[in-house]
Design a protein that fits this description.
Blueprint: E1 14-18, E2 21-24, E3 29-32, H1 35-38, H2 47-59, H3 70-83, E4 89-93, H4 96-111, E5 115-119, H5 128-132, E6 149-152, H6 157-164, E7 169-175, H7 188-201, E8 204-208, E9 232-235, E10 246-250, H8 269-284, H9 287-302, E11 308-314, E12 317-322, H10 329-335, E13 339-340, E14 342-344, E15 348-351, H11 359-372
Parallel strand pairs: 3-13, 5-6, 5-7, 7-8, 8-9
Antiparallel strand pairs: 1-2, 2-3, 4-10, 9-10, 11-12, 12-15, 14-15
The structure holds pyridoxal-5'-phosphate.
Length: 374
């Protein structure tokens, strides 16, 4: 059987990795400033992470959600403490799209309404409702297009109110920072007004922190830079450093009912062990602070680079808008300097490194990009 061919692939096969270093099958080392798409939060092959998962799988890897699982409770408690949403409730699933799918469903159950407001250029995943709330018709099938979603421009609060005033919306869904679009941040004042409008019209505010959360921007969630609270927060990528897991963090004002949500694999023992190890390591190694410090350092050093027309983002979620005359820079970083970065469209390079990145690695990248663009 051949694979269903949906990915254009580089001819590189990583077989080993440690920290921010990846080793490919041919022995070539690569510096990881991409984190496998913002997934590697604590660095590759962290010994405490390996130990925690190995111990767990040697005891019990999986049992169903029909029985007690104290690892889920431990994860929820630790996550509540570190993210500041201690009185919220956690539903565990397996991916980012699934987290958003469940969040939209909860909002719809809670309000009894079906319409969703999302933002232009948004990306929320590939499943039914999540891809419908993604502003990219090319990845939506006719089946997905059946959902009732309205897109308005990011940071246009009047456009939001013009829609919400109609009274038929269950939710607004917004990324903490738009990632796939090329790193675009909602403004602080916009988020504050959005929060107020959701309260005014009884609409559930969903913050998709799947890419921007888990400490990446220097706060646990990116929307916390605006000092607002969401009604539902979705998380995934960095949550278990590559072990599949997603989380839906739900306000206590939304009541759970048996049967409302459910999953076979979500919250399994192994995933919880991996996610607990990640939170313990984020805390003991001050990785949120490191994201801020190294992020600020990268911004300072990249400012003024002649290939970059605009620098966007926060902490270790950085978008570099590359001038057309430097097109191909991402591939040159990969093939000439052996540095993995992310892309967005034709002209944006995204930096989404593990949160444990050091100043030395940042310097190595700055030297490489300066050399390629001098
Ligand atoms: C903001 C955001 N939401 C949702 C998703 C979907 O996550 P997953 O690929 O785990 O389904 C992504 C993935 O890139 C994302 O960046």
């Amino acid at each position: 059987m051949d694979l269903f061919n949906v990915y254009p692939l580089w001819d590189i096969e990583p077989i080993e990795a440690k920290g921010c270093d990846i080793i490919a099958k041919d022995g070539q080392h690569y510096t990881d400033l991409y984190g496998g798409h913002a997934v590697i939060s604590i660095g590759h092959s962290h010994p405490k992470y390996i130990e925690k998962i190995s111990n767990q799988v040697s005891k019990l890897g999986f049992y169903s959600n029909a029985v007690q699982n104290s690892l889920q409770k431990e994860l929820a408690k630790k996550l509540g403490e570190v993210c500041g949403y201690e009185d919220y409730h956690l539903f565990l699933c397996n991916s980012g799209a699934e987290a958003n799918e469940n969040a939209l469903k909860v909002a719809s159950f809670h309000t009894g309404k079906a319409k969703v407001l999302a933002f232009q250029k948004a990306f929320h995943g590939r499943t039914s409702g999540a891809v419908a709330a993604t502003d990219n018709p090319k990845i939506q099938s006719p089946f997905n297009k059946g959902h009732n979603i309205v897109f308005v421009p990011l940071n246009d609060i009047q456009a939001v109110e013009n829609e919400l005033i109609k009274g038929d919306f269950c939710a607004v869904i917004i990324e903490g920072i738009q990632g796939v679009a090329g790193i675009y941040s909602p403004e602080v004042e916009f988020l504050k007004s959005l929060r107020a409008l959701c309260d005014k019209y009884g609409v559930v505010l969903i913050l998709d922190e799947i890419q921007s959360g888990y400490g990446r921007t220097g706060k646990f969630f990116a929307h916390q830079h605006a000092d607002i609270q969401a009604d539902i927060i979705t998380t995934a990528k960095g949550m278990a450093n590559g072990f599949p897991i997603g989380g839906v963090i739900i306000s206590p004002k939304i009541k759970a009912e048996f049967g409302m949500l459910g999953t076979t694999f979500g919250g399994n023992h192994l995933a919880c062990a991996a996610a607990i190890a990640v939170l313990d390591i984020i805390k003991s190694e001050n990785l949120i602070e490191n994201a801020k410090v190294i992020g600020d350092y990268l911004f300072e050093k990249l400012e003024g680079n002649r290939a970059i027309s605009e620098l966007r983002g926060k902490g270790l979620m950085i978008g570099m808008e590359i001038k057309p005359e430097f097109e191909g820079l991402r591939n040159r970083l990969l093939f000439e300097k052996h540095i993995f970065t992310g892309g967005a469209g034709k002209n944006v390079i995204r930096l989404l490194p593990p949160l444990c990145i050091t100043k030395e690695i940042a310097d190595q990248f700055i030297e490489a990009i300066n050399e390629l663009t001098k």
